[in-house]
Amino acid sequence: MRYSHASKAVVLSAALALTLSACGGGSTDSAGGEGDGSYVVTANTTEPQNGLLPANTNEVGGGRVMDLLFTGLVSYDAKGAPVNELAESIETTDSQNYTIKIKSGETFSDGSPVTAASFVDAWNFGAAAKNAQLNSYFFESIKGFDKVNAEKSTEDKMEGLKVVDDTTFTVELSQPESDFPLRLGYTAFMPLPEAAFEDPKAFGEKPVGNGPYKLTEWNHDVNLKMDVNENYDGPRKAANGGIDFKVYQSTDSAYQDLVSGNLDVLDQIPPSQLASYQSDLGDRSVNSPYAGNATITIPGYLDHFKQDEEGNLRRAAISRAIDRQLIIDKVYQGGKVIAKDFTAPVIEGYDDSLPGSEVLAFDADEAKKLWAEADKISEWDSGDEFSIGYNVDGAGNKEYVEAVVNQLKNNLGINATAKSFSSFKELRAKVTSYTMTGGFRTGWQADYPSLYNFLGPLFGTGAGSNDGKYSSKEFDDALAKGLAATDAAEGAKIFNQAQEILFKDLPAIPLWYQAVQGGWSENVSNVEFGWNGVPIYNEITGK
Amino acid sequence: MLSFMLKRIAQLIPVFIGATLLVYFLVFATPGNPIDALSGGKPMSDATRSALEAQYNLDKPFWVQYGLYLKNLVTFDLGTSFSGQEVSALLGRAFPVTARLAILALLIEGVFGVIFGVIAGMRKGKWFDSTILVASLIVIAVPTFVLGFVLQFVIGVKLEWVKPTVSGAATWGELFLPALVLGLVSLAYVVRLTRTSVIENKSADFVRTATAKGLSRNRVVSVHILRNSLIPVVTFLGADLGSLMGGAIVTEGIFNVPGVGHLLYQAIQKGETPTVVAIVGVLVIIFVVANLIVDMLYALLDPRIRYA
How deeply is B228 buried, as exposed, middle or buried, from its count of CB atoms within 10 A (0-12, 13-18, 19+)? Predict the structure, then answer.
């Protein structure tokens, strides 16, 4: 919470959270054809919050740099489909045991070889509790994670990872998970050269990677300069002469630099300019959905909102009392997309008309009816208050939460209030200790493009980000079944069926999908934004 | 004089310890856990969480944390930020930038403030005086961020005389516009303060005497009126240096100046105690030293004041 600090994550979701990778792929030929291939593109960023180690980079500022600096087994194209990078093959017969072969002869930018051990060692390092890496939870499916990530554990070798030879290693998971190969493009799964483990802290300051770019300069709080890595020969080859990331404290100042031609690419239009950026920039701007959403969680431990018939009726009533489109138009100038499920439209397998999704449609009469039905089970005292918590350090939070609260007041006739928290960390501390006294704003940005990533970590029983303490055996079983499916399309179908259970219980109330509003200068062309809302930097060319 | 200075410098020690203790406690007492900001709402296992807490001493009680901080401070170790950088390195980068910004702002408000103030005071009631009074009132009334955005837009984006934001080097030239914005409100105060003071002294006995002695008007104004009028102005400027350095957050944000304000804001958001305490500690020293310099200047400006 790039509070950002006005990081995109702070602004848009519950999370300073972040994600990942940009990664394009595929269309380098179209990029290389015209335009100036030696032009150095300037782009905005925030100061990376941690040293640049794959398993320790969990926010946008560092994430976008890591994705250019490293390349893993796969990367994602603009639509979020995985494309093989270093992987020659990823094979499994049971979704639990994987044999991974990597291309031979690949090197890091310092010349050291990329071998099977570069992956295994990096993953083991990321998983071990003693290394305190923020992305360690990404390795939790690998067998042996619970041993290396136990309190005070000094072990750092997971039994599920085995090097077979220089270019082959095997992965054993503790249960079948069909979307494991999809995750492998996330920053946490990048390989590391041996030198990294000698002094991880020093390496994090001067990382050596194997991606399309290398980091040549990092002037803290000022800029990060990236040069083209000539050794890289994958689908994301650079079509420009390098990227100069400039650190901005606010997107407002970045926007002024953009319109005056001092910045080439801006990946977030400041809220103050949302009404006018399209007329300022014309066809040099974009407004497109990416893999993130905003929700309101009403935890099942609240009176009247238990996970029972009354609670479900009340949550459904609240959901139907919110006129999402009106808020999108008034607060965001149309810069969001109304939600129709719990995931996001850019994800493979997304379905905008799942049975039960009508509970997300605005209908004030129906809302009143549902609320009245709940009252028959247990009376809502007119003195009772329903609050929605938000953190004031994220731009726009106050505006939309207050709008929701006003609609609840008007459409349900209840005493609803917006409850402010001074900071993201204060709100999260209350949420994660399950001591909230009302609903609260949440949101999710996908780490990797998969339906499961929007469901498992948030609504699985006991899952790490299950803020509402939701628990449904039926839903858990559906998830397990979806993960065990060996066919991706079949898996997606089962995950969508699992969503039908969520529509009934509404552990979170989806509001809208996030969209990225970005712009670029007259100096560059071929600017496209990826599935995760990050510009595909390697394809940008000078004019 | 020397013993007076030494006494004042010795006072720094308790002030410094008191201030760091207070700030350390305030950051400690802010609700929420810094680890939640680090994880960004994403899942984190208990084992990883406790490893992180141990790494930053967050698992220890307040007095132990503060004690460890002081212990390291004695060896000039200011601790590390969550991003793994030495806090001393962070300060080493940010403070020179903010110092340049604040000194430039102080020069602008001091030089222009006194000149305009003297002219307005000497021509009380004339058009120049009235214009200055109205203009300074407007500047005081308009919030800094509005002034900043307007000047940035007009001079940086429309006229393109300068770039809208400051580069990483933050040179004196680049900092002129931000310094003007930062110093403008104080400039208005300095003008008004000087003007009032000049008007008061203009009719003082010693000025009448000087004029009666047949001294030139220039000498009367610069030596007799101005020198005596400067005491309140110098007091104001001295106190203002500290506020300019600590209060540049808004201006630094508008012009993207990589200075102390942004660093402090980020550190508070993240609950990064060592960084917050170090910045405030340095600001406290600057305040105290600036006040000492002001006291020294009194003696120069008014011969009746002597320090023993």
Answer: middle
B32–A140 CB contact, under 8 Å: no
- To the nearest 10°, the Cα dihedral for A20, A21, A22, A24? -150
Question: Does the CB of A50 have a partner CB in chain B at under 8 Å?
Answer: yes
Radius of gyration of chain A (CA): 23
Cα A321 to Cα A337: distance, rounded to the nearest angstrom: 18
ipTM: 0.87
A150 touches B at CB < 8 Å: yes
Q: Check CB contact under 8 Å for A429 and B93.
A: no
> In this structure, what DSSP letter does residue A39 have?
P
Contacts of A412 (CB under 8 A, 6+ apart): A317, A318, A321, A367, A368, A371
* Beta bridge partner(s), residue A6: A3
Residue A197, both tokens: 């483990």
What letter would DSSP give residue A129? G
Backbone angles phi, psi at A435, to 5 degrees: -120, 20
Contact A232, A214 (CB under 8 A): no
Q: Is the per-residue pLDDT at A13 higher than 60?
A: no
Kindly tell me the sign of the dihedral angle through the C-alpha atoms of A482, A488, A494, A498.
positive
Tokens of A410: 């008007």
Mean pLDDT of A463-476: 93
The secondary structure element, H or E, covering residue A401 is helix A397-412
What gap in Å lies between CA A46 and CA A30, rounded to an integer? Answer: 30
Report percent pLDDT > 70 for chain A.
94
pLDDT in tens, A162-188: 999 999 999 999 999 988 999 999 999
A137 and B45 Cβ atoms separated by less than 8 Å: yes
Q: Is B42 on the interface with A (CB under 8 A)?
A: yes
Q: Which of A31, A450, A449, A527 is nearest to A236 (CA)?
A: A31
Look at residues A528, A529, A526, A530 and name the one whose alpha carbon lies nearest to residue A543. Answer: A526
Whose CA is closest to A245, among A224, A261, A227, A259? A224
∠ CA A526-A531-A537, rounded to 5°: 35
Distance CA A262, CA B160 (A): 11
Dihedral sign from CA coordinates of A373, A376, A381, A385: negative
Model pTM score: 0.88
Alpha-carbon distances of A118 from A73, A448, B283, rounded to whole Å: 11, 21, 47
- The neighbour count for residue B259, using CB atoms within 10 Å, is 31
Please state, in angstroms and rounded to a whole number, the distance separating the CA atoms of residues A134 and A125.
12
Binned at pLDDT 50, 70 and 90, residue A64 comes out as very high
Q: Which residues of A touch B82 (CB under 8 A)?
A: 49-50
